[in-house]
Design goal:
It contains 12 helices and 30 strands. A 13-stranded antiparallel sheet has the order 18-19-20-21-22-23-24-25-26-27-28-29-30. It has a 12-stranded antiparallel barrel with strand order 1-2-3-4-5-6-7-8-9-10-11-12. The longest helix has 15 residues, at about 330-345.
Length: about 700
């Protein structure tokens, strides 16, 4: 099946809320596992922007941002409401030849409740999959048209009534009203879509949503329960839709599917690795170990050409041990594979075993042992990928066993780049951003010590135009962000000294001091226990942080705090990474942050988190508790060339002071895990590239 055929298969009905469905009502359909879908939807009284992610084959999550004109009641009339909401859908059963797929869902389960609904839905494909029919039972919004007494009331009177008094109230936004789920009246909905051609699809639905809030607040006319849509799909999976809504509105929608597993350049654009030469011609007869321990040696130059720094080498009998640092390859297996080839082409044939020490931030992290004969035998073997991994041995490297290369340190690097600093979902203005120039300087005097700084100069933007006051009853540890934007020009983003070290086997240490981030300076210390071959890691961090002046230069304010967390990390396999952090946050509150990320073999990553502390929801303010989703896209996913770094952002419905953590660069788990066995195995296909 071609890539275009795969993209065509992605086209399926999508609701105005950005989830698989029709217009108002959902279907039991799921996205392909791991896919993202971005959706925009416009009509004259509302705008919707949604991101939906297929977390697992049966679990789907969505984040939606809505702009509802004339929806919020004010003393001087109605104004637009900027609404943030989350959805979840779980697939109970998959479709078979005789039975439909079945799913249960929560719509707007942690927002203002404007779109809050629950449903059970079944869908079935007919007529060679050209016709998709759906029927379901809805509660909340989906139980407001032709509703009837809740059948779940037979189980408990709790399900009979539903409190609708807080719908749309910002003060209650973010709370998770579990007690309201599947309560109140229920109603039936139904829908069908027909694939008229490979590109054109017609959709018709009977909606159980009476649009009660819109009718009361905005004068929306609910003339009919029937909605219709016409969609046109392109070869890349993008779809454009026009729809009619309850006989009174016409809207337009676009949906864009993204396959994180398929980068822009599937094969990569990097130069091919060196071919392994016959041993008898692999090295000059005059080779000796002392001559190779210099930055002037052919071996050093050959590795540097591959983007790899040779930091140390020792040869004992038939075994060569080398220490390398990688400044090019996001997949560390690729740097190991290229290093092994270069060694095979430069070391004498008496060397039969290679021991490659990977480093991170100057620390030796793991050691891979590979027989030279396996490397030669498997270079062109069709099963060489998994065989080479199976024959390699991995162990911790708490201290290096390779003698230093003269001239490796000190190192100095700098760069000047443009930057984009976005601020999303300000309740008064959903999109703000600054654009400017950033200069970054790094100096590494010796292994494990890094001095670095970053300075920004904004050129254009509107971050400083916000008029939203900081009204938190907690210490203003994050809600003063507007003041930092308004009272600064040239900004020191960070200016730090970092020391990375290995206290012992499976142990890593970090000490960072200086201007740690935009709002805080101080000292941060961290210790991490991470076995090289295990999925579990445990860490502890203690920080002393002092609030910086609003001009983001050298001064400090009076507020200071000691924070710290104990952390547990677990690699569940299949790209799923879990993390729990328990401790004290910047406002002095005590609690825990729970995170789950899914990372694909190419480094594309999507995750979600939430934080609960001893701050009451009412004191926390809008949003009730800290939560959000995050994603990062590696540069090489977009460019096709192996390059470290990428673009990432965190989407929070609102940034408040509760549950706020210090943003320290280079926390140890992310620094070292790329050279650990689990991560190497996930991306081992790059060993031969």
């Amino acid at each position: 099946m071609t890539a275009q055929e795969q993209d065509r298969q992605l086209r399926f009905p999508t609701t105005i809320y950005g989830t698989p469905g029709y217009v108002d009502v959902p279907s039991a359909e799921m996205l392909p596992d791991g896919y993202l879908q971005l959706t925009t939807n416009f009509r004259d009284d509302a705008q919707f922007y949604a991101m939906t992610f297929q977390v697992s084959p049966r679990l789907m999550g969505s984040f939606r941002y809505s702009i509802l004109d004339d929806f919020s009641r004010q003393q001087n009339g109605n104004i637009a409401q900027f609404d943030r909401s989350f959805d979840l859908k779980f697939g109970i059963t998959e479709e078979t030849d005789y039975f439909p797929s079945l799913a249960v869902g929560l719509q707007d389960f942690a927002g203002t409740g404007v779109f809050a609904a629950e449903y059970i839905v079944a869908s079935k494909h007919l007529m060679d999959d050209r016709l998709l029919v759906t029927g379901g039972l809805g509660w909340g919004r989906l139980g407001t048209y032709n509703g009837f007494s809740n059948p779940l009331s037979l189980l408990s009177d709790h399900f009979s009534d539903r409190d609708m008094s807080t719908v749309g109230q910002v003060s209650d936004a973010g709370k998770v009203p579990i007690g309201e789920w599947f309560t109140g009246d229920a109603a039936v909905f139904a829908a069908a879509s027909y694939q008229m051609t490979d590109r054109v699809r017609l959709t018709l639905e009977y909606s159980s949503d009476a649009y009660e809030n819109e009718v009361i607040r905005t004068g929306f006319a609910h003339n009919t329960p029937f909605n219709a849509a016409l969609s046109y799909g392109f070869d890349n999976g993008v779809e454009l839709t026009a729809y009619s809504l309850h006989g009174s509105k016409v809207g337009f929608m676009a949906s864009v599917p993204i396959n994180p597993r398929r980068p822009s350049y599937v094969g990569g654009l990097e130069e091919a690795p060196p071919v392994i030469m016959p041993r008898q011609s692999a090295a000059a007869l005059s080779w000796d170990e002392e001559s190779v321990r210099t930055t002037e040696s052919p071996l050093y130059a050959a590795l540097e050409e591959q983007g790899i720094k040779l930091e140390g080498i020792s040869v004992q009998g038939t075994t060569a041990t080398v220490r390398i640092s990688d400044s090019r390859y996001p997949a560390k297996s690729q740097s190991l594979g290229r290093t092994a080839r270069v060694l095979a082409n430069h070391l004498p044939d008496t060397v039969t075993t290679f021991r490659l020490e990977s480093t991170a931030a100057g620390m030796p992290t793991s050691r891979m042992t590979l027989r030279r004969s396996d490397l030669e035998a498997l270079e062109f073997d069709l099963e060489g990928t998994w065989l080479s991994f199976a024959r390699a041995d991995f162990e911790d490297a708490p201290r290096t066993e390779a003698a230093d290369i003269k001239g490796t340190y000190p190192r100095f690097d700098w760069r000047v780049t443009p930057y984009l600093d976005p601020s999303l979902f300000d309740p008064d203005d959903p999109i703000r951003a600054d654009v400017g120039i950033q200069g970054v300087v790094g100096f590494t005097p010796t292994r494990g010590v890094i001095l670095s700084g970053a300075v920004r100069q904004p050129l254009i933007g509107n971050l400083d135009n916000s008029t939203r006051p900081a009204t938190s009853v907690l210490p203003h540890v994050r809600t003063d962000a507007v003041a930092y934007a308004q009272q600064s020009d040239t900004q020191i983003k960070h200016l730090t000294a970092e020391y990375f070290f290995r206290p012992g086997t499976n142990l890593y240490g970090r000490v960072t001091a200086g201007y740690l981030e935009t709002m805080y300076g101080g000292v941060s210390t961290e210790v991490l226990w991470k076995p090289v071959n295990g999925p579990l890691a445990l860490g502890a961090e203690v920080n002393y942080a002092k609030k910086r002046d609003f001009d983001q230069l050298f001064g400090f304010q009076d507020y200071d705090v000691v924070t710290g967390h104990a952390s547990a990390y677990y690699d569940f396999g299949g790209g799923y990474l879990g993390q729990v952090d328990v401790g004290r946050y910047l406002a002095g509150d005590i609690g825990a942050t729970f995170s789950l990320d899914r990372e694909f073999d190419n480094g594309f990553r999507v995750g979600a988190f939430f934080t609960l502390t001893d701050v009451p929801f009412d004191d926390f303010g809008e949003g009730s508790f800290d939560k959000g989703i995050r994603f990062s896209v590696p540069i090489d996913w977009l460019s096709g060339e192996p390059t470290l770094g990428g673009f990432g952002t965190t989407i929070r419905p609102v940034q408040r002071d509760g549950g706020a953590r210090l943003e320290v660069r280079n926390r140890l788990y992310e620094v070292v895990r790329g050279t650990q066995t689990n991560e190497l195995e996930d991306r081992w296909g790059r060993f031969w590239r």
